[in-house]
Structures are given as structure tokens and as C-alpha cells.
């Protein structure tokens, strides 16, 4: 997968050199190029923003540098992190992981002139994505979040791809609690069933914990869980 990131703060993306994203880059599964939006300015002050038409607080990103930047790195699937975007889900991460070329446009201030998004949409798929119902300073941190969610789904990135099958948000339920050694710690014991070696009982216990957790923490997820996927023991739980 090829990724281009356009931002006025290229330094924000240092974490993409680390850990499994860094490894995916060095093994060639992923290429990431970070571009400074100011490369595509032509005035001495390298201006990227101006006051909003219609008045109001803050500044808006001017269209010209964005237009040139997207002409230079595109076409591809354009992702614009924004608090007015569609809420990001695991399903979106899977869809983006299937794309060959992603372009991230990081807005700052009050956002990017709308014509940039409309103009790009005439030439390439555009997705405005929100991380949640809160406002960040800009799209940079959102890009790192989306890149983590997407990169771990690329074939060959996770050592054990079966860990994707049962994780939270893949099966429509939250995952059960997890434990490791020691079996006893500060007088707290690992649940006996997990040490029983009985794989059937362990699977049943995990399933029950998963349902209880989801019902308690995410009633919205529980409500949209397909009822035909609930068996008799699930209902008893
Ligand atoms: N930029 C500013 N706020 C954001 C949010 N909530 N999600 C994605 N990008 C943003």
C-alpha cells in the first residue's frame, strides 16, 4: 500500500517510523511519504490560511496549495479527517486496507476550503472521517490513529492473522478480559476455567464474558447484534 500524507506539521508523523508500522515500511508492505503543504505555496510567507468568507472566528485553509498538492500526489483515495466526517469504524478500516493508494489531507484551524474537497471528489474517491464527537487541533493525530487501524489489517503485518478474527469490533461484540502469568497476583486469581485446558468451556466462558461486557458497556452494539447469532446459552447469560 502506498500512503501520502499532506500536513503543515510533517514532524507529527515521527511515530510512523516505530513499531509495527515502521516494520511494515521497512519490509516494503507499506510506503509512507509525508509532504509539507507549504511546498505548494508561492508567496514569501508560505501562506496556507485566510479569514473565512461570511465572517466568524478562526482561519480557513486556502484552496490553492491544497489543489496543487493533490494534483501532485493524486489520484488516490482521499481521506480527510474532520469532526464533520463519518464516524470511523473497524469496517472503514477494512475498506481502507483494501485500497492501493491512500492520500491523507490534514486540515488545521477551522478546516479546509470546501471547494478543495468538492474538486477532488470529481476525480477520486473522498472520505471525510471523524474519530469521534470531539474536536482536535487538526487532522494529524487522527491520521496516525487511522494508519494504525488500517496497517494492522494489511496481509503480512500481524504475525498471527487469526488474532483479527475474534478481536473487539470484528465480531460485533467486545472481547472478553485477558490474563497472563502469574496465576495469582496480589491475591487476585486468574479464573480457573482459563487454566482448565477444557477448550469448550473456555470458549463458552469467553463468549459469556464478551456478551456481558458488551451489554454493560455498549448497549448500542448489543442492540444491533443479529439475534440469530445468539444461541440458548447466550440467552441464559
Ligand atoms: N480534526 C479535528 N477534530 C477531528 C476529529 N474529531 N476527528 C477527525 N479529525 C479531526
TrEMBL record:
EC number, as in UniProt: 2.1.1.228
Residues annotated as signal peptide: none
Locations listed in the record: Cytoplasm
Annotated residues for binding of S-adenosyl-L-methionine: 107, 131-136
Substrates-to-products reaction catalysed: guanosine(37) in tRNA + S-adenosyl-L-methionine = N(1)-methylguanosine(37) in tRNA + S-adenosyl-L-homocysteine + H(+)
Annotated keywords: Cytoplasm, Methyltransferase, S-adenosyl-L-methionine, Transferase, tRNA processing
Pfam families on file: tRNA_m1G_MT
Name of the top EC class for this enzyme: transferase
Record domain tRNA methyltransferase TRMD/TRM10-type: where: 1-222
Function: Specifically methylates guanosine-37 in various tRNAs.
Family membership: Belongs to the RNA methyltransferase TrmD family.
Complex formation: Homodimer.
Protein name per the record: tRNA (guanine-N(1)-)-methyltransferase
Source organism: Paractinoplanes deccanensis
